[in-house]
Design brief:
It holds the Pfam family ABC_tran. By secondary structure, the chain is an alpha/beta fold. Among the domains are: 98 residues; 182 residues, P-loop containing nucleotide triphosphate hydrolases (Rossmann fold, 3-Layer(aba) Sandwich). It is 48% helix and 15% strand.
Length: 402
């Protein structure tokens, strides 16, 4: 196994070892505190008792010393614990800021680039000419602007080119094996296949939770790794089976991620109406100001989905990913959500992941994924007529064909 392939397991092992050491230190600190308290009390009892017996010390003074010992010991222990907690808090804040700024190349990105660069021949001493004509000595040294990223996403195809990927903790298992797929601009592409075929991994790569270990993903021919991750996130909307809602109001959840001075109440209501969410929202006790609970626990699954769709409509990103967005809904909720999704996908570059093939029959193209590769590609009618794996899936689900 090569050096880059060992990076992530080594990091995980380092975290495990650090956690073990931290546990040992905390246990040692508590044990030491108890020993100090008990030894101090024994010393006080012995020394103080002898002083009291000799008449050199009153019982009240001795009791005061015992109380001071308890107070001082636990104060010191509390200060030490607080200091440790503060260090952990500062580390967490630093990590959160790093994620929000998305300026640092994370371990998974470094892992992916390292594996790819290991397999590439040097180009003029690692010099690379970017689309803007500048020459850079490192693959990631020139990040494009967000406006350029958005323009490309609205006008160009997204192409997964010979993409290989293995998760860092299982670097010997290739989840994707040379997957090649074009997601055409302004059209709906569906990705179907059995469980474990690699569909969810494709979503994670397109959302840039990970980077390919080999191959690349491009938008209008430009490798997406030349864009800052935060900027890339602005052009992608992801609606999945279990949308993330926060313990805030309905309106705040719809507008989440957008600056307060950019989004008006009227725009929030307009997005909710388009997502078939306005009617149920105004029936809530405080309307758009109603708190949804932790992870939207006070709402039904269909209501949470429609709020997530309203959020995506308000964001107006050019690239949309729907990952099993209707799989957990009842028939009535699915109809309302599907109507909202059809409006959301209109004119956008869309990738739909689905197990239920009835939800993707009208896609412009359907790609069948198996063993980390695209095995079949075409329209619903073309793939059924072909009689391959897609036709077998259709037969299994007993769709009513036209």
């Amino acid at each position: 196994m090569s050096g880059p392939a060992l990076i992530a397991p080594a990091v995980a092992l380092s975290f495990q070892n650090s956690g073990t050491k931290l546990g040992v230190l905390k246990a040692a600190n508590e044990s030491l505190t108890r020993v100090v308290v008990y030894v101090s009390l024994m010393a006080l009892y012995i020394l103080g008792g002898s002083k009291v017996s000799a008449g050199k010390l009153s019982i009240g003074t001795m009791a005061s010393f015992i109380g001071y010992t308890f107070t001082l010991t636990f104060a010191v222990q509390g200060a030490v614990n607080t200091l440790g907690d503060l260090r952990g808090t500062f580390a967490s804040i630093e990590r959160i800021n790093s994620v929000l700024s998305a300026k640092d190349i994370d371990d998974s990105l470094a892992y992916g680039l390292a594996k790819e660069l290991d397999n590439k021949e040097p180009e003029d001493s690692n010099a690379r000419v970017h689309g803007n004509g500048t020459v850079n000595t490192h693959y990631m040294s020139a990040l494009k602007s967000s406006s350029s990223c958005s323009d490309l996403a609205w006008s160009g195809d997204i192409h997964l080119e010979d993409v290989h990927f293995s998760y860092p903790l299982r670097s010997d298992v290739d989840v994707l094996n040379g997957l090649d797929l074009v997601i055409e601009c302004g059209k709906v592409t569906a990705l179907v296949g059995s469980s474990g075929a690699g569909k969810s991994t494709v979503v994670q790569l397109l959302a840039r939770y990970y980077e390919p270990t080999q191959g690349r993903i491009t938008v209008a021919g430009e490798d997406i790794r030349v864009f800052d991750k935060r900027e890339w996130s602005q052009i992608v909307s992801l609606v999945n089976q279990d949308p993330v809602l926060f313990s805030a109001s309905v309106g705040e959840n719809i507008a989440y991620g957008l600056p307060d001075d950019v989004v008006s109440k009227d725009e929030i209501i307009k997005a909710a109406k388009a997502a078939n969410a306005h009617e149920f929202i105004i029936s809530l006790p405080q309307g758009y100001d109603t708190l949804v609970g932790e992870r939207g626990s006070l709402l039904s699954g269909g209501q949470r989905q429609r709020i997530a769709i309203a959020r995506a409509l308000l964001k107006n990103a050019p690239f949309l990913i729907l990952d099993e967005a209707t799989s957990a809904l009842d028939t009535t909720s699915e109809r309302l959500v599907q109507e909202a999704l059809d409006l959301l996908m209109k004119g956008r570059t869309s990738l739909v992941i689905a197990h239920r093939l009835s939800t993707v029959q009208n896609a412009h193209r359907i790609a069948v994924c198996s063993d980390g590769k695209i095995m079949e590609l075409g329209t619903h009618a073309e793939l059924v007529a072909k009689g391959g794996s897609y036709a077998a899936l259709v037969g299994t689900q007993r769709l009513a064909f036209e």
